Model the fold of this input.
Amino acid sequence: MKTILNQRLVEQQELTEDDIFELEGLHEIRARTFDKMAALNPTNDEDKDTLILYSHLLESLEYNMQRVWKFDQDRNYHSWWYRVPYCTCPTMDNGDPMFFGRRIFRHDCPVHNHIIEQHAGETYEITPDDIGELPCKD
Ligand SMILES: [Zn+2]
Done:
């Protein structure tokens, strides 16, 4: 399925044909990443590690999408991380602008509970170090 981009936003942000082509490519990778995640078994330790790696890859993808859209590269506005296969984190709360700036994880989420375990008792913000270097355009 071809990605349908929000036309109003495309015009507002004055995206070029190249930008649109690049965004479609990023969404294609995003969809394939979700397919690969869905094919894994979250109760298998090795698969669980792979799920986590894919979730980090997804964060870079979201930063890249923001770059092409000419938005600030801000993790607080990422909107795919809690929609990945097997994620049980609360979609409603995490999609609510009221909660932007912090992420709400669930302990039983196989994709994100390692973040809670690593940072028990503290408010955790994901830093660029957690998701690796952002790929540069040039
Ligand atoms: Zn989750």
Notes: The chain has one domain: 10-128. The CA atoms of residues 19 and 68 lie 6 Å apart.
